[in-house]
Design goal:
- The protein is an all-alpha fold.
- It has one domain: Ribosomal protein L20, C-terminal domain (c-terminal domain of poly(a) binding protein, Orthogonal Bundle), CATH 1.10.1900.20.
- The chain has five helices and no strands.
- Helix 1 runs parallel beside helix 2, helix 2 crosses helix 4 and helix 4 packs across helix 5.
- The radius of gyration is 26 Å and the shape is rod-shaped.
- 14% of the residues are buried.
């Protein structure tokens, strides 16, 4: 009896993998063994960096809030401490947006905290 191989499924598996590496440079996009390693590493980076992105954005928001608050003669840490004391429930993302795009509203928040 001849050996039975499921070439259809094998080809589909390889095609799926090569489709995911589309856009990569050189052999990474069209040689199966190289593409497999490249894809695995890429997916690992993607998983890791979904978490890193959150850290980076928090740092950016803090920098923007700090810059906005210093225009009103306060430091970031003092501002955040007083914000907590006054029970103003604005998160860093919102505060950073106010500092960048709506300076009048941000000034009102700073004045509310100063009182």
């Amino acid at each position: 009896m001849p050996r039975s191989v499921n070439a259809v499924a094998s080809r589909a598996r390889r095609k799926k993998l090569l489709k995911q590496t589309k856009g990569q440079f050189g052999r990474r996009k069209n040689v199966l063994t190289v593409a497999k390693n490249s894809l695995e590493k890429g997916l690992t980076y993607a998983y890791r960096d979904r978490r890193t992105k959150k850290r980076n954005f928090r740092g950016l928001w803090i920098t923007r809030i700090n810059a906005g608050v210093r225009e009103h003669g306060m430091s970031y840490s003092v501002f955040m401490g007083k914000l907590l004391e006054k029970n103003i429930g604005l998160n860093r993302k919102t505060l950073a947006d106010l500092a960048m795009n709506h300076p009048e509203a941000f000034k009102a928040v700073v004045e509310a905290v100063k009182d």
